[in-house]
Design a protein that fits this description.
The complex is a heterodimer of chains A (about 450) and B (about 180). Chain A is about 30% helix and about 35% strand. Chain A has about 450 residues and is α+β, with helices and mostly antiparallel strands. Chain A has a twelve-stranded mixed sheet with strand order 7-8-9-10-11-1-2-3-4-5-6-12. In chain A, strands 13, 14, 15, 16, 17, 18, 19, 20 and 21 form a nine-stranded antiparallel sheet that branches. Chain B is globular, with a radius of gyration of 18 Å. The N and C termini of chain B lie far apart (about 65 Å). The chains are: A alpha+beta (about 450), B mainly alpha (about 180). Chains A and B meet through helix 1 and helix 2 of A and helix 1, helix 2, helix 3, helix 6 and helix 7 of B.
Chain lengths: ~450, ~180
């Protein structure tokens, strides 16, 4: 018994001093070693050669020859063990070369893991580009023609811009340039993972390539199919000073695939009407209105969370006033006092809603909805003057300003109407839209 | 290629964490750990065919890892580089000068490692696999290619030696040792 206690005590002492977990940085380095080792195992020469070597060693007559063969085999194994370029790094180099040399490139960018916010990008040499956003905006550009076409599918409007304005796409194109100019060697190997039945090897680039301009890029993690050596996914983290981290993921990467050239056609589709390029012809507004004071001033910032009771609508926006009266009457019957001016939120003419902000936790019944808008990054601008005036023009101007500031729309447009119904000079409209960093 | 992928999945993938842990727990230094780990992988590479056919390949692989780390520890111990450059083998424990409460955790670690580093090789490997990785005697026997009784003997002797060397770190043991005296 005494011996058992003594044994337990000494075992406990050793365990207590030795049983510690591996620090993360050490684990990273060891995993890297394991990954290289795995690649070597998978490249290991056929077992038949080794069997032959062993069998020769058992025959004294040919032992000398066998030893020579064994030495040769050892030399070849050493070449595998100490390669100048490991298989892992060759996988990255091959994928980078493929992206560099491809005449076409397509991918989808998802912002902050929010499925709603997705952008499809297509490139076709020498200078065609197309961006199609999940919220119904499409931009086609032709560098050689020096112009771009902006399509707003929800409202069936279009805007043709010049080459100078087309440069506003630079942030989005930087991602493509980053992909098309990957170095031959990654800064770090991240390890392996299985996804969709494919063995992926991850590589990290810690900074943007010199020919791109992605400010605040902290990680560009590219995952490559070890079998086909094609890039499968890129996880991007961007943090600019004083701003929150933005996560983006590039998916559905296709390099060198056939692309339909009509996707880059700069002819506006039939049925679409042109909208006025902001600033090209300032609309006339009432005295003192913002239109007379210069360009729309769109600011980007975090909007407070908001709860609202709304009436889901579809069809003409001319029903807005009636919808608001209905919601107002309903709130009165429920004893709920609005906590702010009325608002409208628009996806398309087939889906929009109007209502009033209310205290959180209010209970509503059909056909009304209680919506909760989180505190999120939002673009906003206040336009003084008659509600609803020049809606198309100012929203076109709004979108353009958002894009030029390096952001992309990340949710439906919203208007908040302040002032009194009967006094036009008191009226103003706050335009709001959730946004996300474009690059 | 597929077979080799399966081989890795079968032999290495399930115990990757154990392999890294086994080496780190003995080496305790990033550079030494990486060196020992690479040594272990080289040994595994050389013995791949034997490992594939081994009745307990995981135990054998962990054994190889512990061996590689232990060899590094032993080299350092012999070179007097384990924390205390001037520590001679006979200086490892100094029961009269210190007690468990009076010396730092780092110094306790160093004393334990120095003591293990001075054990005969088989005793050290056996006690490390048994106490550190908590491997059953049967697995250790399979890994060391010996009988289970032999492993028990190695472990018992290692404990006896460590009880003497480290008695000052375990008051109860120290007391019992004292009562034997």
């Amino acid at each position: 018994m005494r011996d058992k206690n003594a044994n337990d005590a000494i075992d406990e002492l050793i365990r207590g001093r030795i049983q510690v977990e591996v620090p993360a940085d050490v684990e990273d380095r060891l995993r890297h070693r394991l990954m290289e080792f795995r690649a070597r195992v998978e490249q290991r020469p056929s077992g038949r050669l080794r069997v032959l070597g062993y069998s020769l060693l058992h025959r004294p007559v040919v032992r000398v020859m066998a030893m020579s063969a064994a030495l040769a085999l050892a030399a070849s194994v050493a070449l595998v063990l100490i390669p100048t370029q490991t298989r892992v790094s060759r996988v990255f180099a091959a994928a980078a070369e493929r992206l560099r040399s491809s005449q076409s490139l397509e991918y989808t960018i998802v912002l902050n893991a929010e499925p709603y916010v997705a952008v499809d990008f297509a490139y076709l040499a020498p200078g065609y580009r197309r961006i199609s956003c999940s919220w119904g905006i499409e931009v086609r550009s032709d560098a050689s023609a020096g112009k771009q076409l902006v399509l707003m599918h929800a409202t069936r409007k279009y805007l043709v811009e010049s080459r100078k304005q087309a440069e506003s796409l630079a942030n989005t194109e930087d991602i493509a340039e980053q992909l098309r100019s990957l170095p031959s060697v990654a800064d770090e190997v991240l390890g392996e993972q299985w996804a969709g039945g494919k063995r992926l090897i991850g590589y990290r680039l810690r900074k943007a390539q010199p020919n791109t301009g992605i400010p605040g890029l902290t990680a560009f993690d590219i995952w490559i199919d070890a079998g086909t050596r094609e890039a499968q996914r890129v996880d991007i983290a961007i943090q600019e000073e004083g701003k929150p981290v933005h996560q983006m993921q590039i998916r559905n990467i296709r390099a060198g695939a056939e692309i339909d050239r009509s996707l880059f056609d700069l002819t506006p589709p039939a049925g679409y009407t042109a909208i006025m390029a902001p600033g090209a012809k300032p609309p006339a507004g009432p005295p003192g209105s913002s239109q007379n004071q210069g360009a729309l001033h769109v600011t980007i910032g975090y909007a407070a969370a908001l709860a609202a009771v709304v009436m889901p609508m579809k069809g003409s926006y001319l029903q807005t006033s009636a919808a608001l009266h209905t919601v107002e009457a309903y709130l009165k019957t429920q004893g709920i006092a609005p906590v702010g001016p009325p608002l409208g939120r628009y996806w398309s003419e087939q889906r929009w809603e109007a209502g009033y902000p209310v205290p959180p936790g209010a209970h509503v019944e059909a056909p009304f909805d209680l919506i909760s808008l989180p505190a999120e990054l939002t673009a906003s601008a206040v336009v003084k003057g008659l509600w609803g005036k020049d809606s198309d023009g100012r929203w076109g101007s709004f979108f353009k300003s958002v894009i030029e500031q390096g952001y992309l729309p990340a949710g439906p447009a919203m208007e908040i109407w302040s002032g009194e119904d009967s006094k036009e000079w008191t009226q103003s409209t706050e335009m709001r839209m959730p946004v996300a960093k474009a690059n | 290629m597929e077979d080799r992928q399966r081989e890795y999945e079968r032999l290495i993938a399930p115990i990757e964490d154990r392999m890294m842990r086994a080496v780190w727990r003995v080496s305790r230094n990033p550079a030494d750990t990486e060196d020992a780990f690479q040594e272990a992988l080289l040994t595994i590479w050389k013995r791949w065919d034997r490992i594939r056919a081994h009745p307990n390949p995981h135990a054998l692989i962990v054994h190889i890892c512990i061996n590689a780390a232990y060899d590094g520890l032993r080299r350092k111990t012999r070179q007097g580089k384990l924390l205390d450059e001037s520590a001679a083998p006979e200086d490892i424990p100094d029961p009269s000068a210190s007690s468990a409460g009076a010396i730092s955790a780092a110094e306790q670690d160093a004393q334990v490692f120095r003591a293990i580093g001075h054990l005969p090789k088989n005793q050290a490997r056996a006690i490390l696999m048994h106490a550190v990785e908590e491997m059953p005697y049967s697995d250790i026997a399979a890994a060391m290619d010996c009988r289970e009784a032999t492993v028990r003997k190695h472990v018992a002797r290692a404990r006896a030696r460590l009880r003497t060397l480290l008695a000052h770190l375990v008051p109860a043991v120290h007391k019992e040792e004292g009562s034997h005296a």
